[in-house]
Design goal:
191 residues
């Protein structure tokens, strides 16, 4: 789908690459299943911390997309991310009209539990300098390894769509739990 992982181009040199994987069996870090199929048959992009040093980085780069045009021009980058492991460092996402400058729009730090979380970033014309508004931009996903190999990260179901991001869904719990479930590994109590 046009995304690439590599050691980067100046000034974004990376220590290793993201990997396209399926059927992961590690219990203490990373997802066991992908988000799309919710099974071990589906694929996702994984930041594998094993055999890396603390602070090592890996970058994942999108294909180029046209900069939103006009004052009301917007695009929505939707994705699912997974940050499970006792020593997870960070995940950040930025946009760049060129490889020489990047604006970070999203940063998460630490262990977020063994769950997939949805992220949405609205990208607008005014996120770019005036001289960059007629070209393309790229999305850069960057992971940083924590102090141990228990710091895997993952991304799945990433896409860029025209228009603003959809409003967050709400639930009044009248008909059902709307997809909410108890998170037993984070606490001993149930709702």
């Amino acid at each position: 789908c046009g995304w690439a992982s590599g050691t980067g181009e100046e000034p974004y040199f990376y220590d290793f690459i993201w990997q396209r994987v399926a059927n992961q069996r590690e219990l203490d870090t990373g997802p066991a299943i992908d988000h799309t199929t919710e099974s071990n048959a589906g694929y996702f992009m994984k930041f594998e911390a094993l055999n890396r040093k603390s602070g090592d980085r890996a970058g994942l780069r999108s294909p180029p997309y046209p900069v939103p045009n006009g004052v009301l021009g917007k695009k929505c980058f939707q994705f699912w991310y997974h940050m499970h492991g006792k020593d997870v460092a960070s995940l950040s996402i930025g946009i760049t009209p060129s490889l020489k400058q990047r604006r970070t729009l999203f940063t998460r730090i630490g262990n977020h539990g063994n769950h997939w979380w949805q992220g949405r970033l609205e990208i607008a014309t005014n996120d770019f300098q005036p001289n960059d508004r007629s070209g393309n931009f790229t999305i850069i996903v960057e992971g940083v390894r924590g102090v141990s190999d228990k710091s895997d990260l993952a991304i799945d179901d990433a896409g860029v769509f025209d228009g603003p991001c959809a409003a967050e869904a709400t639930c009044d719990f009248e008909k059902d739990q709307c997809g909410f479930s108890n998170v037993y590994e984070l606490n001993d109590l149930a709702w």
